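Here is the promised in-class demo. Please do not try to memorize the tokens; focus on the logic of going from shape to residues.
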């Protein structure tokens, strides 16, 4: 049976973007930044074939121009399966410019398959 991918659900707080990345979650942000572009992660093909689902929590900073910097996986279940896809997606995110870099941002990305 062929499984369809439910675009990786991304738990994000305070997002008003008209995309499938709107599930609220607690965020560890010292400063709130308005999101401009949020990219859903690609589901890894190997995980899809094996029916693996999971979550990845990523911490990161946002520079003054709105680019994600210093992104790192702080927790992943299962470990190492979705890390690369989560980092690639978050590093492509863009936020509104600000006067200075903001640190302490954290998001949990959920990878789920839809039957």
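The designed amino acids, position by position:
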């Amino acid at each position: 049976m062929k499984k369809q991918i439910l675009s990786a659900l991304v738990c994000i707080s305070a997002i008003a973007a008209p995309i499938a990345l709107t599930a609220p979650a607690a965020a560890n942000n010292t400063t709130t930044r308005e999101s401009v572009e949020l990219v859903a992660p690609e589901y890894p093909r190997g995980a899809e074939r094996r029916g693996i689902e999971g979550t990845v929590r990523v911490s990161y900073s946002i520079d003054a121009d709105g680019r994600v910097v210093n992104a790192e996986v702080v927790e992943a279940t299962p470990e190492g399966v979705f890390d690369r896809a989560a980092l690639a997606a978050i590093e492509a995110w863009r936020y509104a410019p600000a006067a200075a870099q903001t640190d302490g941002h954290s998001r949990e990305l959920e990878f789920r398959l839809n039957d």
